[in-house]
Amino acid sequence: MQPSETRPDGGRGPDGEGGRVAGPVPWYRHPAWFWLALGLVALLVVLLVYWLFLQPRAAVAPVVVAPPAASPPPGDGIPGAERQRRLAQQQDLNRALEERIARLRQQLAGNVCVAEGSSDTPAGGLAGSAPPVATPPGETAPRRTSQALVQQLENATVFVVTERGVASGFFISPQLIVTNRHVAETAKDGVMIVTSKALGRAFLADIVAMTSSSDKGGPDFAVARIRGGTARGALSITMRGEKLDPVVAAGYPGRVIAMDRALHELVSGSEIAAPELILSRGEISAVQTSPSGIPVVAHTANIMGGNSGGPLVDACGRVVGVNTLTTFDPEGGGKAAFALASAPLKAFLDRQRVPVSVDARSCAGS
After folding, report:
1. What is the rounded distance in angstroms from the CA atom of residue 227 to the CA atom of residue 115?
2. How far apart are CA 263 and CA 286, in angstroms?
3. pTM listed for this prediction
4. 237 and 358 in contact (C-beta within 8 Å)?
5. What's the whole-number average pLDDT of the chain?
6. CATH number for the 91-112+141-361 domain, one of 2.40.10.120, 3.90.180.10, 3.40.50.2300, 1.10.260.40?
7. pLDDT at 28 over 60
8. Displacement of CA 298 from its chain's centroid (Å)
9. How many CB atoms lie within 10 A of CB 217?
C-alpha cells in the first residue's frame, strides 16, 4: 500500500476522495476559466512582440545641410542685356558731363584775364606766395567754437571738378590750393575747376606741383594756383595729433552732394552755383606708418569718394592730414578712413619751395 499524503488544507482531493492527492490532470480536462486566462496571456505576448518588433516606425527626414549660397553674378544678378543698357546710359551721362564741363571751362577762360606765364610756375618755387608763418610751440592754440570752425572751413575748402569726377581741396594761401595728386592727374591739360560758396563762383586752377606718384600709402599731394580768384581764408597745418583727438573732415563727397541742386546747376553751366560743404566729426584712431614709411592718420570721421584732397582738421581748425582713401570690409561691413598726415605734406611743400603756415602749439582742451 502506498503511503498516504495529506493536503495542507486537509480537505478533499479533486477526485472527491478525502485525504488523497489527485494525480496530474489531463490537459483536456482543465476548466474553462483556465483556457480563458491562458488565451489572455497568449494575446498579451503577441501584442508585446508586435509592439517591440513589428510596429512600423514614423519616417525620420534626413538632415540636409544646405550648400553655401553662391556669390551673386556680376551686376548683382542683373541680366546681361539690362546691365549693358545701364552701362550705355552711364557712358552717355559721362559724355554729357564732360561736354558741360568743357563749356564751363570755356566760359571761365573767357572771363579771366591772366598775365602770360602766371599760371605756369617752375618746379623750383611758387613766386608771389604768402610767406610762411611759424607759431611758437610753447603757446596753446585756442579751441574753435562750432560756428567759428564751420566758417573757417567754408572759407578755405573748395569743390574740385575734373573730367573724371569731383573731389576736394583747401587753400594754404590766398591763391594756392592743396589736393591729392590722384585728383590733379585727372585734370585735362593740368587745369581744374574750383568753386565754393565763399568764392562766389567757379574759377580755373592750374596744377603747379605734384608728388612723383599717387601710389596707395605713399605721398599723394598736388598744389594748384587759382586764376583770378582770392580765398577768403586759408588753413595752417600742424604736426600734432594724438589718439582720440577730435577731428572734422571737410569736403564734397559725391554721394551726398548728388542731392544738391547747386551741383546740377554747376555742371549745366552756371558759374555761380556751388554745392554745400559737407562736414563730419570723428576722432583720431591711430597715427600709423604706412608701408612706404610715411605717417597716416586713421580716423572715424565719415568720408567717401569726393572727400579726396579735403582737409582733416583738429578742434583748433588746423590741418592734421589730407583725406585720401577709405577701405571697406565686405564681410563685417566696417569702413576705415585715412588721411595722409601733415608731416609728409610739409616735406613735399618744402621741396617745392611752397610756403605754408605751421602751427606747433598744442590745441587747448586736447
Report:
1. 10
2. 34
3. 0.70
4. yes
5. 78
6. 2.40.10.120
7. no
8. 13
9. 17
